[in-house]
Q: What sequence folds into this?
């Protein structure tokens, strides 16, 4: 008897929440059973109906009611690792941030061995924000500074069923070391994603942060966003913090400029539901950190999977 009352109450509560979201958003009809979660889906469904349904799912008072909706949400032990690369070299490295092509190929094989699957930046955002269903072991590859070798990396990833994200310093596009406009268009056409990584002040963000010169930081981010939209007709949803420069005020700048994700340094090894989407933790994979060594890389991946 008590179970029936709880069941009726939860059904009523969910119906009432949907009704309120309809009034607020002027939506005529949403059927939670039929809505498909797509990368380009608008935020309304997640920020209202599914968000509150997710809260109900988290309560798990009566699993029978929510059983048919389980496929919308990730299980408790789901996580995503975000790997931070810079330059992938074939013959001669530029600096200690680099990783050789051969080691990069071995990293991909190790990730496959441990069952990792690629997700998009939108997937990552909706997962940490609303617990959207993603593979239990998810990975995002990022490549900072837009070195020309990102073209090589994108081809290798594509051949292995993966994709990635190029963090671009827009003020140096077309320079001798960064990808040019044509190469960026090729990346975009191949579904490679873009994160902005400053315009001209990349190397000065820590100094600007120390001086609390938020106006100059904001101007630089705005210029980067404006440049990319003008040249490529796209507004990237992510910003990669230059040199890891971050605090609450910089996060507010990103939020006001409608960025969904902020890509940071290694605060944690993994990203999980409920964490701040404007500070996504990444693991630096480089020769200086030793994780470029396939044996140490596998040890890292094994440790992460066993801990989660």
A:
């Amino acid at each position: 008897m008590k179970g029936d009352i709880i069941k009726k109450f939860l059904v009523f509560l969910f119906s009432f929440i949907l009704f309120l979201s309809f009034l607020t958003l002027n939506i005529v009809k949403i059927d939670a059973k039929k809505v498909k979660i797509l990368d380009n889906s608008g935020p309304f469904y997640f920020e209202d109906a599914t968000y509150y349904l997710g809260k109900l799912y988290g309560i798990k008072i009566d699993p029978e009611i929510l059983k048919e909706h389980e496929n919308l949400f990730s299980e408790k032990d789901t996580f995503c690792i975000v790997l931070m690369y810079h330059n992938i070299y074939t013959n001669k490295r530029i600096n200690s941030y680099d990783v050789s092509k051969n080691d990069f190929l071995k990293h991909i094989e190790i990730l496959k061995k441990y069952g990792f699957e690629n997700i998009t930046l939108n997937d990552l955002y909706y997962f940490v924000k609303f617990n959207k269903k993603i593979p239990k072991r998810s990975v995002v590859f990022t490549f900072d500074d837009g070195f020309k070798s990102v073209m090589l990396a994108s081809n290798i990833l594509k051949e292995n069923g993966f994709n990635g994200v190029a963090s671009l310093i827009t003020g140096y596009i077309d320079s001798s070391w960064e990808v040019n406009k044509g190469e960026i268009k090729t990346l975009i056409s191949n579904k490679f994603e873009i994160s902005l990584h400053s315009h001209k002040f990349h190397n000065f963000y820590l100094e600007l942060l120390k001086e609390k010169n938020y106006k100059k930081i904001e101007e630089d981010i705005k210029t980067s966003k404006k440049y990319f939209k003008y040249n490529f007709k796209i507004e990237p949803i992510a910003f990669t913090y230059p040199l890891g420069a971050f605090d609450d005020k910089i996060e507010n700048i990103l939020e006001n400029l409608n960025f969904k994700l902020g890509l940071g340094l290694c605060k944690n090894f993994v990203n999980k539901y409920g964490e701040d989407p404007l500070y996504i933790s990444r693991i630096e994979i480089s020769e200086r950190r030793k994780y470029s060594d396939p044996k140490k890389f596998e040890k890292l991946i094994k440790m992460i999977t066993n801990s989660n």
